[in-house]
Model the fold of this input.
Amino acid sequence: MTNRKTKLLALTAIAAMLAACSNSGGNGGGGGSESSGTNDGGGAAASKPLHVSITLMGGPKTPDAWVETALEEDLSASLNRKVDLENLFLPGWSDYKTKLNLMMGDRKSMPDILWHSDMEKEYNSWIQAGVLVDLVPHLQKHGRNILDYYTEDTLFYSWDDGKMFRLPGDVAELGSMTTMLRQDWLDNLGLQTPTTLDQFVEVLRAFTNDDPDRNGKKDTFGFVGDHDWRAFAPFFYSHGVDVDQFLVQEDGTVKYGATMPQVKQALKLLQDLYAEGVIDPRMVTPNVSAGDLFAEGKVGSLYYWVSFLNAGHPKQMSFKEINPAGQYAALEPMLGPDGFSADVPSDGKGWSFVSVTGAAEEPDAVVQVLNRIASKETNTLIKFGKEGEHYKLDNGTFVNLINEDEGKQLGLDNYTWIITRKDEANIKNTPEVIQLFERRIETSQPMRDKIVFFKSSNRKEWSEYSADLIKLRDETFYGIIAGNLDIGAFDSFVERFYKQGGKQVEEEANLLYASQREEREKFGAWYRDNIAPYK
Ligand SMILES: [Ca+2]
Done:
């Protein structure tokens, strides 16, 4: 490994010298990033091999795997020159930041393409130090796939006053969760699909008390989910609140969702349902695994991941094995007492990013590499392998032709989170699931309009107080639901919240919201001029 790296580094040095000599050779033109086009004798710069080192965090991290060669061939054909990748596999989640800091500390050890996540402070210092490339001019030339895929809102979170020093490497689907309900239980009991919260609650009661699985035993629950607040979305969201987020109020100010009076109503309902045995008590314990309970099939409804509805999802397969006649339906979000409804939106910022560093001799070409990876074709190739050889599509349904171990050996997913597409390029999603993801973008919009997803990571008050405030919220809310606390505990929570730092936290949130709105407007104008024409 080290040997190979040294050799490659030596090659890079030579390539760099060559590049320096031939830099006058036009690297303009040839704008076609998706089709290779001809080389028009662009000189040595275009015909010499392109060496690209890249840090990788996801997947099996299989060295010298099939996928590396496959991607190199794909890139070489696309760029019309030999492309040689150097994979720099990062250590695990506890060590990757140390490793990246080390690499970024010296220009000689910097990768050409840097993957990073949860390193806002370091990221800002890299920008300050001038070691990251502003991608805008390169994206304008070679970034069409990337610019077409990411939305304007998503790119805003990687915008730095007219420049972009990073791109999202992975952005969750904008709406990736849905209300799930046992259709076969509805049919068994002769019930209608609920559309309002009241109807939903009646169905959950029937799922608890009326033996929906017809085995003569009272052994089912109405509702379950993981130990987090989004799992309760059908109850909170129908009341127009999200207890994890800052929400814009009718008067334009911002409040922490957990303190809003509607939360009390939802908590009261949850407390009643818990007492009635409708809510699976495992839901208020930290170790619950809703995925396992989804598969077991003794609970009638969950608010859960859309991807679990894929026929090939392991938990869906276990569910079908245990419950051959079982069927989960995905429901539209429940209408609440005031007629509001929404699904849980994701923030759309991206949770991990890719940057091009100053070590890249040809940033233009490196962006071409990223842009090719962002194509549907290449995304599919590096994630799933070759159609007919590693998988097939049966009427649109993905069928693996290899097992998990073979996939690891091939290195499939080695390049995940380097601009991973979640649209139709994710061919593991059935057409129905793809449609559902699209629908959830719309049904999550009403809450997305209320939530402030903060762009700035510089939130002093939040950093200082949030851990304690969140602890206070969780103890109070779970205590109320489980019946250990009276519903009046909500009012004392709100009081204590503002006394114990909540006031400062909300003031900060309002200031940030105001400046962020201004910045978003400025970005919108910039986007129209600098990005929209290049899509
Ligand atoms: Ca039963």
